[in-house]
Amino acid sequence: MVVAFESGRYRVFGETLDIALGNCLDVFAREAGLRQSVGMPFGAVVERLASDGKKLIPLPYSVKGMDVSLSGLLTASVALLKKGGWRLEDLCYSLQETAFSMVTEVTERALAHTGKRELLLTGGVGANKRLQSMIRAVAEEHGARFETVEAQFAVDNGAMIAWTGALAYSHGVVTPLEKSFVRLRWRPEEVEVPWAE
Prior knowledge:
Nucleotidyltransferase, domain 5; two-stranded antiparallel ribbon; alpha+beta
């Protein structure tokens, strides 16, 4: 998601219409038979292989307004992988470049629209150095400060949820236990954010 704080809430300016970016990379890595290890999740394995890629293979690029669709990109990448004839490094490079270009395009549009002066890249895929460099270039072009979340905090949704809960509680947002429940499809714009300026 590409979100910006506006009028007391985080507003969604763009998002994936199907699968998440991290999921796209993870599924491709599994299909390629790659292995993850401690400190080296699938996204990092793809990033390492992509750094040795030399050839940009044409893949579906799907930006629809302010949203992206990654399922066609994943399907095409896996099809080329199974067909053979391409170096795995080039497939990883092409998948990563195409997906990141789509996300960067939407991010740049949102930044131009909102005029924000700060840009924060979060999430597990946010640890990817290539994605960071692409988003940083957009921020610099628009005069915005660019930051990332420390990798140790970017991959644990539990830590992010707990911190949000602590912020909410410290600003008087309290939910009685009998009214608390898990809501899987809770949109960011539905939540008031009194702790943000």
